[in-house]
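Proteins fold reproducibly. Next comes an illustrative record:
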Amino acid sequence: MSAVGSSATTPEVLDVLVVDDNASLLRFLVSAFSASGCKVRQAAAAEQALALLDQQSFDLVVSDITMPGLSGLDLLRAVKSQHPGTPVVLITGNPSVKSAVFGLRHGAYDYLPKPFSIRELQELLARVRADRQQWGGRVTLPAGVTEELSRRQSSVEVLLRIGDLAQRELETTAFMGEVLQLITQGIKSDGSLVLLRDGDGTFTSSQQGAGSVVTRALTSLERGFADMIARSAGETVSVSPPGDPLEMIAAVIPGAGETVGIVCLARDVANPFLPDERVMMAGYAQTAGVGLQKRTPREHVERQLVTSITTFVSAMESKDRYLAGHSARVALYAVETAAALSLEADQVDLVRRGAMLHDLGKLSVMDTIARKPERLTAEEFTIIKSHPIVGARILEPLRFLTGEAGVVRHHHERFDGSGYPDGLVGDDIPLGARVVAVADVFDAITSSRPHRAALTIAEAREELATGRGSHFDPAVLDAFLRVAPQRLEAIQRHGERVTSGATHAPALAETR
């Protein structure tokens, strides 16, 4: 098997196993992968492929689904049980199968509908190589997740760069022009503009994209500028006229005094803006507004960045009635625990922010998994378990949140080393993560989920005590247990709750 981290000019050499009972298609696969810089082994049946897998490991397995004897699905299950880090791509004769649904249902990395071309195989290899580089040689997530993660990371990085711009004391028009460039990097559009009105009522604008698109957006904003300023502060709204072939979204940029602006993005209605893009748009506008202030302390910018990201998390949780308010409650429980530990004020703030952001990585987990009412399959749980790493990587550009990123990455570690993602033990786990671990589990087991009912506060305290020294740091757990039950009850009421309609299940098994 080849090493990870090949140079950008020389594609990584992958060991590929291709499996198909159709001799002509098998020859095509061998030829195409060989021509793309792979070492290829072939098998005409799943049984033969399993024998080869006993002899060596592969970087990629590509198999037809329908074959005599064992099917491609049988092979997939065998590979995933023996080599969980090996991506399996299945060839299907059903062109209507959707990649995400197929991958989530069966644990496949991707699928190839017949007929397919050499170009499609080359694109597949490019995705596998990129994912291997991203995940350290293991590809445990379905195709598309890495691209989605990159999009999320880019969105957060744009927030940071807008914040940095706010520190440069640029002339207003130049500042807004650069902000618009950054926003269109974070959220793709066919046309975009910033419309700014100063204290004298004078309008100025910065524009990007197709002229006809920008003109229509500008006309719409000029007509409704005052109304939008009055009704939509802090959120993104749609401003498209009924029946318009463009979808236009806009957000208010708060300013100093009477100076205020609106940023607007437009693209074809066939490519609608995603909910997370709308939330991030509002964050961009609010952060840009910081730059219109006469004096912009760095602390002000950083607070706005954290506010934007926590709003992002809250919006994600609000889509699921079982999770609504989860991170906010975890933050409150964690702060109470930190206070009981007599931590310094700056440490308490770190714990609070880390708790609010602890599930940030679930932004890149597809809704069909994150909101699935039934228990997760092994493959789906593997995807869920990636969220601490994903969340920490999303925060990487925000250097002032390094401590919080450690909380995000390690909040599922266990004191005895049996947790994930790094199997840290004892005091090697950051203190903030040890605090959030207790708060996270407490909120999980006192909240109803589709597959089990909530425990009472007394029951949950007893359940947590069974994890003392194994799941939880004894000192942290003892501090949590010193928090008055009345205070826990008050926090428990924070946000929307679901308290009936499920049956009990082992509580500490709750790791979603």
